[in-house]
Structure formats: C-alpha cells, structure tokens
Design brief:
The structure is a single chain. It is built from 22 helices and eleven strands. It is α/β, with parallel strands linked by helices and 583 residues long. It has an eleven-stranded mixed β-sheet, sandwiched between helices. Helix 5 packs antiparallel against helix 6, helix 8 packs across helix 21 and helix 10 crosses helix 20. The protein is globular.
C-alpha cells in the first residue's frame, strides 16, 4: 500500500462515549468592583481589636503565617535565609505560634500592641511614670506615639526574621584591637576595641551626630564613612560596651551594627567577648553564664582605667541582657565610692539598653524543651550544639573544677540547654540546682535593685519568649529607672526594617542610640530629683566568695583588671585582628 494511499485513508469515527472527556472545572468568577468595594468598607468598619490580631496583619488564622512567609520570600527571591525559613515553615517546622502572641494578650494591650493592615507596629512603652523615665523616653523619637516600626513585607514570620537577622554578619566589616583583661575570679575576657570601619575613610574629624528621625531620614543607614577612626576621638568620648549572646562575639551582625550606630555618634566602642568565646582562652575552670557578672565588671573597670573621664554605656542582647542586668543590680545596690571630684558617686555606667531579653527564664527554658513546640526544640538543639563545641574545646580547664565530676562530660548525650546547665554550669558557679540558677538572674528579681537608666526592648513574637511579661511589667511600673518598649513583630535579636533589611541598622539599633544619647544629655530638676529620691535598693550580693576565688585559681581576691601596665599590641594571623595583650 502506497504512502499516499495511507494519508488519504480516513480514521473510523468513535462513539461519543469514547471521545467524551472530563470537562475542566470552571474558574471562579471574579468579584465585581462594587462587591470588592463593599468588602473593603466592611473591613474598614471592623473594630480596632479585630483588625489588630498579632498573629497576622489581615486577621487570618495563625496557621497561614507559614504560607505568607513562603509566598513573600518567593516574590523576593534574594535572601537565602528567608527562602530556607519559608521552606521550613511550609514543612511545618516554623508554624508553631508562641504563646506570647495569643489574642487575649492583644486584647489586654489594645490596638497599639498589634500591627495594622500595612504591617506597621506601634511601640508600646511601659515605665513607672516617674520624671526620669518619662523624660528619657520622650527624647527618643522612635518611641513616640506617632512613631512606627516597619518590618519587611517578606519577613512577617518571626522565625524567618530571627534567622535572617543573623545574616547581617556579612553586610558590615569592622577592624578591632583586642585587649585581654583578667577578671577578679581568675578568668579572662577579650575587649575588641573598634579601630575603624574597613573600606571606609582613613581619618578626619568625627561626623556630626545624626539628625532626629523624620519621615525622610527615619530609615537612614550607617556607612563606613560615618564611623570615625578611634584615634580621632577625644579622651572624654563615651565608651560604649556591647555584649553578645550564647557563644557569640564581636564578629556577629547584631554586635557590629550596634557598634556602627554608636560609633556614628562619636562614641568609643568596644565589643566584650565572654570567657572562652570568639578565640578568648578559658583561663579558669569557671565558664560564663547568665548569673555571673564578673566579665562585665572586668570590662567596665578596664574602660574606666583607660578613659577615667569618659562615661560608660552598656548594651547587650539575648543572654547578654541577663549578664548586664545582674551586674547593674549588684553594683547599684552597694555603696558607691567617692568620685574623681570628691562627689558622692563615681560617674560610671550612665545608661544601658537590653535587647530581646526573655523576661521569665523559667517558662522560656521550659518552652524550648517542650516536644509539642517543634520550633522551640529546633532552637534548643542548635544552641545545645554550640554548647557542645564550647565545652569540648575547654574540657581540660573545666575538668579542674573540684565540683565537676568525670561523668559530667558525656557531651554526646546532652541534647538540650538544661542538660548542660544541670551538669556543668550550675556546679561551676555554686548553685544548688537549675531553679535557683534561673531565679538569681530573673528580671523580676533584679529590676527593683537597678538604679541606672535602663531600657528593655523586645518583640511580642519572640520565639524565645514563652509567656506574657505581665509580672515584669508590674515590677517595672514600681521603679523609677527602668522602662520596657515592645512591638508586635521583630523576632529574636532581629527587628529588621523595611527599606534597609540586612544592609543597615535595625529598629533596636536606632532606639539604642537614641536612648543612650538621651541619658548623656543634661537632665531637668525633676528628673534629678526622681533619680536621687528612688530610695535604697535591695542588696544583690556578688556570688564570688574568697573560697570560690581561690578554688577557681584567682588567689586571694583575684587580679585587678586595672592594675597592669599598658597594653602591648601584636597581630593574630588566625583571626585577622590585632590583639592587645595585658597578660
């Protein structure tokens, strides 16, 4: 049969039952313009409490937060952290909403605690109403009623923003000089003094202070040219000390960007590396912890010794907030030595800002170990992995402590933070158990003893915050020096801002600079009277008896951090920073 004959051959017709196919479902009809306008008017007429749901800006269920993160990160497509967080959220790992974001707490706080339809968050400030805190908060433009915090549209999920916040490490580069300082208990810390910003200008006068935030300059970023070299600063320039979190250091993004903001104001900046962290050797069996303030005390004393006429400013995040808060309570509750001019007090710490502090350590640590909260277990496992590396690196030194047993170093079986605290941290610091350890540095206990102007900054969706801060707010309202400002969104040590993202300061960096600068200004007579009339605080004694000092290798009273000679500088090729040694 020829090919032409095959082409002309017709196919047999099939019956209708054979050729019938399933008709495709019809697309949903789009609502008319009048219907869409009617729905918008109905949403606009809703009460404020219904629109200000903390779980989602549009009033949907909390389970849709993962879908929002996945869709928004897919639109942006420029952040590996956001994409990874969106994938994890779609897999169900990041969908667990923290109990602190419940609708009942939002109703109690009113519309100010939740974001509006555009995602803007209005800060909610809590303080005792005294003249001092009222004056300091009024001097912070970012904490006013008309101020707004604008989180990025692609980072509405708290876990995604928490992960993305640590990517800021790669967006700023600073050069430090390291000073090794001996603590009173025999340990040692590393002070990384800011020399200059890399890829910036080499000299010149300090830049003028940044203008107050406005509609045009609110999201002003900080560049390398805004950071003056340390050699150009006067000896009376305020000393800004920044403290990191668990196993962190001066290399982390939150530390570097906070230092950049402080340096742009003409302050001398230093990053405090706790004992055993970021290349600092562990010189004694005593490790760092939230209840030990010796590292901060050594840093403040060393700063006073080098710059005796300069006020000291403190800031920290995560675990560093506990350490600084414990130090302030211990120092403010003891009699002050005479100042350099013979006055009634040493002009030491002028103010402090503490970022992302879990206000209830008991419930926070329990939630991180709850199997029903997968997100908490994820953070717990990541932190436990860092602690395993820390104790594996310093196992020889920690084993010399008389209260640490040999079987305490079964690091492979320790999968939670509490396991390390029960086996090693509690024993090296002389606590009876973990509950006593938590109770010692709990903010509800130490805040009444603080007499230094202090501002706590937190987010309502912080994954590390497991309960409401009602008890701590009640304590803060009874003080004259402490204030708390929180927003609905921000994650843990993130608070990224729209229009800046990973490539500039976050909201807490901006508030940090404003509050510390306000504390350095001249105070009114009412504010001075409120400071002087606060009364004698409850004593918070240091947990460093002479016997513990001798057991830790510090001798009778340890080594004074300010009694050694001037620092000698040398280069450390392994870490790429200049090391200033005082040992």
């Amino acid at each position: 049969m020829s090919r032409a004959h095959l082409k002309k051959r017709k196919r047999p017709k099939k019956c209708n039952q054979q050729i019938s196919r399933r008709r495709a479902p019809s697309r949903p009809r789009r609502r008319s313009f009048e219907a869409r306008v009617g729905v918008a008017n109905a949403e606009r007429a809703m009460p404020d409490r219904a629109k200000a749901r903390p779980d989602d800006a549009r009033g949907r269920e909390p389970s849709t937060a993962a879908e929002d993160a996945a869709s928004s990160s897919g639109r942006v497509g420029g952040s590996a952290f956001a994409t990874a967080a969106a994938v994890a959220a779609a897999a169900g790992l990041l969908c667990a909403a923290s109990p602190s974001s419940s609708s009942s707490s939002s109703a109690r706080r009113g519309p100010r605690s939740g974001p509006d339809e555009s995602g803007e968050c209005e800060p909610f400030v809590v303080h005792g109403g005294g003249a001092l805190t009222r004056e300091l908060v009024a001097r912070c433009p970012s904490l006013r009623r008309d101020a707004k915090y604008h989180p990025p549209r692609w980072l509405r999920n708290a876990h995604a923003q928490t992960l993305a916040g640590y990517a800021r490490t790669l967006t700023i580069f600073l050069k430090y000089d390291r000073q090794i300082v001996r603590c009173a208990d025999g340990g040692q810390v590393g002070l990384d003094w800011l020399v200059r910003a890399r890829f910036g200008r080499g000299g010149g006068p300090p830049p003028p202070p940044p203008p107050p935030p406005s509609s045009k300059t609110r999201r002003r970023t900080v560049t390398a040219d805004d950071i003056p070299p340390a050699r150009d600063l006067p000896p009376t320039a305020p000393v800004f000390i920044m403290l990191h979190g668990i196993n962190g250091g001066s290399h982390e993004g939150p530390t570097k960007w906070a230092i950049a903001v402080a340096a742009s104001r003409g302050w001398r900046c230093v990053a405090l590396n706790l004992r055993g962290c970021n290349g600092v050797k562990l010189a004694s069996p005593k490790v760092y912890c939230a209840a030990s303030s010796e590292d901060v005390r050594a840093a403040v004393d060393a700063s006073r010794a080098r710059f005796p006429r300069a006020p000291v400013l403190l800031a920290g995040y995560s675990l560093g907030t506990y350490v600084i808060g414990t130090y302030l309570a211990e120092e403010d509750s003891k009699p002050k030595p005479p100042g350099p001019d013979g006055d009634d007090g040493w002009p030491g710490v002028a103010a402090a800002v503490l970022v992302s502090c879990p206000m209830d350590p008991h419930s926070s640590h329990r939630s991180l170990s709850d199997p029903e909260r997968p997100a908490g277990m994820m953070y717990n496992g990541a932190i436990a992995s860092e602690l395993r590396r820390y104790f594996a690196r310093h196992r020889k030194n920690v084993a010399e402590h008389p209260d640490v047993e040999d079987d305490a170093f079964e690091l492979s079986s320790m999968r939670t933070i509490r396991a390390f605290e029960e086996s090693l941290i509690v024993k090296t610091h002389g606590f009876k158990d973990v509950e006593e350890y938590y109770a010692y540095f709990s903010p509800a206990r130490i805040i009444p003893s603080i007499r230094t102007p202090t501002l706590y900054l937190s987010a309502r969706d912080d994954p590390f915050t497991a309960s409401d801060s009602v008890e701590v707010e009640r304590v803060i309202r009874g003080t004259a020096h402490v204030a708390l400002a929180h927003v609905a969104k921000g994650g843990h040590v993130a608070f990224l801002e729209r229009g800046v993202g990973l490539f500039g300061p976050c909201w807490t960096d901006r508030v940090l600079g404003e509050f510390l600068a306000a504390a350095l200004e001249e105070r009114s007579e009412d504010a001075r009277a409120a400071h002087e009339g606060a009364g004698t605080p409850a004593a918070v004694a240091r947990r460093t008896p002479a016997a513990a000092l001798k057991a830790a290798g510090g001798g009778e009273g340890g080594v004074d951090a300010a009694a050694t000679d001037g620092p000698r500088s040398h280069a450390d090729p392994r870490r790429g920073v200049h090391i200033m040694s005082k040992l």
